[in-house]
Predict the structure of Bifunctional protein FolD.
Amino acid sequence: MSSQLINGKEISNTIRTGIQKEVQDLIAKGITPGLAVILVGEDPASHTYVANKEKACKELGIYSKLIKLPEDTTEEDLLAQIKQLNEASEIDGILVQLPLPKQINEQKVIETISPLKDVDGFHPNSVGKMLLGQETFLPCTPHGIMKLLEYSNIEVAGKHAVVIGRSHIVGVPMGQLLLQHDATVTYCHSKTKNLQEMTKQADILVVAIGRAKMITADYIKEGAAVIDVGMNRDENNHLCGDVDFDSVVEKTSAITPVPGGVGPMTITMLMYNTVQSAKTKLA
Ligand SMILES: NC(=O)C1=CN([C@@H]2O[C@H](COP(=O)(O)OP(=O)(O)OC[C@H]3O[C@@H](n4cnc5c(N)ncnc54)[C@H](OP(=O)(O)O)[C@@H]3O)[C@@H](O)[C@H]2O)C=CC1
Ligand SMILES: Nc1nc(=O)c2c([nH]1)NC[C@@H]1CN(c3ccc(C(=O)N[C@@H](CCC(=O)O)C(=O)O)cc3)C=[N+]21
């Protein structure tokens, strides 16, 4: 079967062109959208993501403020920083890069970010609204994946979507968005028995596990669309997904690569949320 390669980079660029236009319109009205990113510690992978976010801001004309804090930052200091940004008029979105060092309570940090600037969509306020189908900031990775499906003309309604992973940042919201678009959704996780039996029923398989190349051809139904969220390093220290691309590609009708699939879309939807937030300043 010939498989459609879902080009996240290209779809990202298409969407970013629209966002760039919106930024220009806002700037013409005296509003420059602003994103603050807080990075605690020295995780090298985090630095790459943060660099990609800064680059995207620059390209689109969004003001970006990077706040780097040392690994041993106290929770108190971090919360004080967030409160300042909540008040800062030039900042429309606040992202605290996760995971955080162990001395810091992640949930408390997320809840301290103003829901009005919660461009990650991780605040309980945003999560609740998402579940209810109300307008809010949607989590960037699942939202980006919905856009990938839409732009690739992959129909969701009536399909069986299987999501592997139930993290609050990817798996759980992913299943909810698919459900809202009328898929029949199954969640799988580390306690799932007979994972292959589950995934072999998937018309759409979203994989967000964090284990390099774990998903091989044996997990795939012929003709499935496969979305790979994983960001791992393989034995040669090359970036790779959770899906063993070479093994599964022949069986799929559509598949995302890593890199160049989901990752760029995450950043694009972050830019989108930041601009949406800035637009609330329009009279
Ligand atoms: N491209 C992008 O934009 C992004 C990529 N990522 C990447 O996506 C991956 C997942 O991220 P995230 O959701 O934060 O990860 P988490 O580690 O928070 O969650 C992993 C999930 O996978 C499940 N899991 C672990 N092992 C297995 C297994 N053997 N079989 C079935 N399920 C399993 C876990 O189950 P349980 O709940 O039972 O522990 C958990 O629900 C990572 O590689 C991350 O780097 C993340 C965010 C954005
Ligand atoms: N508060 C918070 N929000 C996040 O959204 C968040 C986070 N914390 N912590 C880490 C994960 C991971 N993540 C990625 C973003 C972009 C790429 C990305 O740009 N990937 C590119 C290139 C990657 C590269 O070259 O290293 C690609 O896949 O093509 C990947 C992963 C956001 N996350």
Q: What stands out?
A: The chain has a mean pLDDT of 97.
